[in-house]
Amino acid sequence: MLASLVAQSTLRNSFDLVFVEPQFVDQEIIAKYIDFVSKYLLHPEGKFILSTLAERTTFLEHQCGMKHMRFSPNIPRLVYQYQFYANWDCELLNEENEELADLLKQEEESFVEETEHERMRRIKSQEIQSVETPNLTTPPRLSTSFSRVDKNKQLLKSVEYPNLAFYRNQLPSIPHGEFIDAIHNKWTGNYSLLEFHHGYIQWIFCNSVDEGMNHYCRKLTPYEAHEMQNDAKIQKRVIMSYKMMLDFYGIELYDDMKGLVRRAPHWTERESAFTFHNNLRITRLLKSLGEIGNRSFKRPLVDFFAHEILEKDQLKSSYKSLLGFWIKTLDSEDQVTLMNQITEKNLIAQYEKRNALVKRRVRRVRRSRISGINGAIATGNSMSSSPQSAEGKKTKQHSSVAQFIRQQRQRRRETTRHDSRETTDVLVLSPNQAGSGHNASK
Length: 442
Prior knowledge:
Strand content: 5-15%
Helix content: 40-55%
Number of strands: 6
Radius of gyration: 30 Å
Strand order of the largest sheet: 1-2-4-3
Low-confidence stretches: 110-117, 126-148, 383-399, 422-442
Shape: flat
Structural class: alpha+beta
């Protein structure tokens, strides 16, 4: 629509400079923005500046012909930092910000000034047990903002096996991350940070299939997997990562040997965490456990979700993830065993029948309300057009309005009474449907 309007106007290909900051950061959407600007807005020698995430650098440089600018619109504490990209060599934008160096220096100095006594006191106050207290002789970590893409690339190039180095506490998660021990110490229980930070999950649950949305991560190599499985310290850190994410979902690991899980005391508060985005994280978690150790932990967790979803009618938003992804991450034998158990109890059919019944009830209530309102309006219109006396019109109109109000009140009472029942044996029908002689049984 917009393209057709611009194509017919005198503004087509008449802009000398266009600045775009897309609302979304998907590669397909960014490509459409670039295509639209080049076709309809810029004249042949026009200049184009784009602002988006640093994670899109490779895509923009190789596939879209944009050049990464060194000037960075730094926003403190923002998880994903934005970068500028242009279709020409801009000298002003190719100079780094002066304030960025000051920010990096301040954060590194604050990290060095933190003494070991202060670190241990903070850990104790949070009641979090660290696997291994980080050594302060380790070079200072990079800034938590990690605003410079070049430093991240240089850091990764210096490490041959990044996943192994990360779990050995030698490399921080990139971008905007921490060392693994610092993540366990400071991030556990910080649900807001774990929810909105999108660069750590690919590091703590790496796998050989994909690196996810974080292009700084690398796929797990066979050598890394072997070393991680046979390193006792790494295995302890893997379990701590697992406990941290279970706590995020309101679940606790009560048997470290068998991997048994159950609802944590804050389960009800964390039910809202089971969104589509966080369901994907669970899929990654399960895949990773099968490669970096603790493969036996996968089945108890999937059993827990199957029980909560199919038998207790909880976590309705995770139903498709359970059947389509989580069960499929299990070994073949466990998949067959679990699906046989679900089939024997007829859990899937019962679940879908219950939820279909609820959906039908909601649709019927909505239809009855709409039909009742339309009926009242039609009745009022017919009365106003009928050749009756003024007194007769007034009496009949009052009667129809009162009847409509009584019907609405009765419908609300029936709906409330029906919703309060524990069983779903009876469907609530509207007064019009009840009067027409339809059965109300299921």
